[in-house]
Automatic annotation (TrEMBL):
Residues 119-217 form the Copper amine oxidase N3-terminal domain. Belongs to the copper/topaquinone oxidase family. Its cofactor is Cu cation. This is Amine oxidase. The active site is at D312, Y399. Its EC number is 1.4.3.-. Residues 247-647 form the Copper amine oxidase catalytic domain.
Length: 652
């Protein structure tokens, strides 16, 4: 895809960033060095030779030289010689690879490339190729028949790949495809279909043209992403946190949700709805979401360790283990804090100060952006990715779990857990890895210290109400399809989506990684204007499954981890994946046993159970305190809105 930039500016600013101006062997070429390359190559060829630079870059020094320089670096250390690697097209016919000594500005080598393929496109030849259709009579006639104006046409260059052609069939040709403006700068939303222009880049002329028929150009309505074209305000709220107690209702930007606390589950997000500007109403997404169980089995079979297979929520209370958050450390300065309460053994309420913090997050991320340089005036639009985060930390023994529920203006809910704290280590006789000859059930981290191998499986209860209670689970499987020989396409294969609707619980069990599958939860009774069922997509994070045998007693109790995804019909008694009574349980009241009923789940009020897993093989950097290891999942709109919800342009 061609992209013609004008200027690129990079600004780095922070009161705490220190920028070193000393040179490094891997520094990119400076402006002066590019000039040195240009001078050397131009001098190398005669004045009557046409040279096009398709690539100029640093020819990296040997790795050993760079490492040696870093190890012995002082202000007076000599850096390895700097050289440039160049790919050039000479006289539009041949490709050359050159090496230039940047210090001496001399050519060290010039080799003619005779293999297959060509260097990357230059912007200049793309600009020239893109202009050709508007001077081509058949193309202008095609526009006339479509009722399109040439002044609103912008064209783009596309590489065409290789489909077995030999000899002259592999010349430097591209396809030029065009789009239509007329009311929007979002040209890629308005393709002019049915017309194919083939251009020979070396000859810079059209060598093929085909108009296979008229296809309607998509409307411009609602596609313009410029800020000046948006409807104020964005959603019903402003970027300020409005915490209402004691009901714990939160409204921010286009989100409305309830935050609760449970001594077993910890934070519970309920009745999460998002405001739809087009419909001028809040629409439901998540009725209730929380951590149902946290299973942490250790792989140590020694007598003092074999039983260490923790069910942290069901045995210890994930909420009971809540740690008070430290302002300015656990949470940023703009955070709002909330307390929580739990009963003691006598039923007396006990306060947990600073149990939650809620804050707006902006870490320099981009929610969306695009630079369009093909328009008469360059258009660059960027939106900052500002989100609202609800954070809680549960310290269950040695581990601290940082729990974030993040609400994004794009309609996504991201759930992240960060594992930190301390490893659970085992003392040993070993002082060096070479002394270990028998099974140690872990890794030596320091003298006499073994970090035991273990897992973390976090199972979330997600009662999705996608635009209402009646939902279905679509397994969209991505499969390779072979192209029949009788078709006119030179392609041999492509992939397509095969959608299966899960009818019962057994249909919905998913082991991630076993196949390419898209997980979408839809309301089959609600459709977009173009006919798609409204839905939300579950985007998994860390994919891990249990490695214990099914007949291991530990795994029988934790059979709910056997699949990463389960779907059950809503049942108010089915909240805890490991059962209500977990201590010394026998695995007879778990998500796995409930699902054996194989109940119907199509067009029902359903609950999604998602298990996020980590296999933890400790390393020395985890000792003595473990840097945070994070993963999670995302609930992301999938045809829930008519268009990008953060882009609400006026529509005629």
């Amino acid at each position: 895809m061609s992209k013609i930039p004008t200027f690129l500016f990079f600004f780095f600013f922070s009161s705490t960033i220190s920028i070193s101006l000393s040179s490094h062997p891997l520094d990119p070429l400076s402006p002066a060095e590019f000039t040195s390359v240009q001078t050397a190559v131009r001098s190398h060829y005669s004045n009557h030779t046409s040279v096009a630079f398709h690539y100029i870059g640093l020819k990296e020094p040997p790795k050993s030289a760079v490492l040696s320089w870093l190890h012995h670096h002082t202000p007076s250390s000599a850096a390895p010689p700097r050289r440039a690697f160049i790919i050039a097209r000479v006289n539009h016919t041949t490709t050359h690879e050159l090496t230039v000594d940047l210090t001496q500005s001399t050519i060290l080598s010039d080799q003619l490339y005779t293999g297959s393929g060509y260097p990357l496109f230059t912007f200049e030849e793309q600009i020239a190729a893109n202009a050709l259709p508007l001077g081509h009579a058949p193309f202008l006639e095609s526009l006339r028949r479509r009722g399109l104006h040439g002044a609103e046409i912008l064209c783009q260059t596309y590489g065409i790949g290789w489909f077995g052609e030999q000899g002259k069939g592999c010349s430097r040709i591209v396809r030029v495809m065009c789009n239509y403006l007329d009311g929007t700068v979002n040209l890629f939303m308005r393709p002019v279909e049915g017309i194919a222009v083939t251009v020979d880049l070396d000859r810079m002329e059209i060598v093929g043209y085909r108009d296979r028929g008229i296809v309607p150009v998509p409307k411009a309505d609602g596609t313009d992403y410029r800020g000046s074209k948006q409807r104020p305000p964005f959603g019903p709220g402003v970027n300020a946190i409005n915490v209402v107690q004691p009901n714990n209702l939160n409204r921010w930007a286009n989100w409305d949700f309830h935050l609760g606390f449970d001594m077993r589950a910890g934070p519970i997000i309920s009745t999460a709805s998002i405001f739809d500007v087009d419909k001028q109403t809040f629409r439901r997404v998540l009725y209730r979401g929380f951590l149902s169980e946290l299973f942490v089995p250790y792989m140590d079979l020694t007598e003092e360790w074999y039983y260490r297979t923790f069910f942290d929520a069901g045995e210890f209370g994930y909420g009971l283990c809540t740690s008070s958050l430290l302002p300015g450390a656990d949470c940023p300065d703009n955070a709002v804090f909330m307390e929580a309460y739990f009963p003691d053994k006598d039923g007396n309420p006990q306060q947990l100060p600073n149990a939650f913090c809620i804050f707006e997050r902006y870490a320099g991320d981009v929610m969306w952006r695009h630079t369009e340089a093909a328009t008469p005036e360059v258009v660059t639009e960027v939106r900052r990715d500002v989100s609202l985060v609800v954070r809680m930390v549960s310290t269950v023994g040695n581990y601290d779990y940082i729990n974030d529920w993040e609400f994004k203006q794009s309609g996504s809910i991201k759930v992240t857990v960060g594992l930190t704290g301390l490893l659970e280590v085992r003392g040993a006789d070993y002082t060096h890895k070479d002394q270990i000859h028998d099974e140690s059930y872990g890794q030596i981290l320091s003298e006499n210290t073994i970090g035991s191998n273990h897992d973390h499986f976090l199972t979330y209860h997600l009662d999705l109400d996608v635009d209402g209670e009646s939902n279905s689970f679509l397994k969209s499987k991505l499969k390779t399809v072979r192209v029949p020989n009788r078709t006119t396409s030179p392609r041999k294969s492509y992939w397509r989506v095969f959608v299966e609707t899960a009818k019962t619980e057994s249909d919905a069990k998913i082991k991630l990684g076993s196949e390419q599958v898209d997980l979408i939860f839809v309301n089959p009774n609600k459709k977009t204007m173009v006919g798609n069922p409204v839905g939300y997509r579950l985007i998994p994070g860390s994919v891990a499954g249990p490695l214990l045998s099914d007949d291991d007693y530990v795994q029988i109790r934790a059979a709910f981890t056997e699949y990463n995804v389960w779907v059950t019909p809503y049942n108010e008694s089915e909240k805890w994946a490991g059962g209500v009574y977990v201590d010394r349980s026998r695995g007879d009241d778990t998500l796995a046993t409930w699902s054996m009923k194989d109940r119907e789940i199509e067009d029902r009020d359903i609950v999604v159970w998602y298990t996020l897993g980590f296999h933890h093989v400790p390393c020395q950097e985890d000792f003595p305190v473990m840097p945070t290891l994070s993963s999670g999942f995302e609930l992301r709109p999938a045809n829930f809105f008519e268009r990008n919800p953060v882009l609400k342009a006026y529509i005629s």
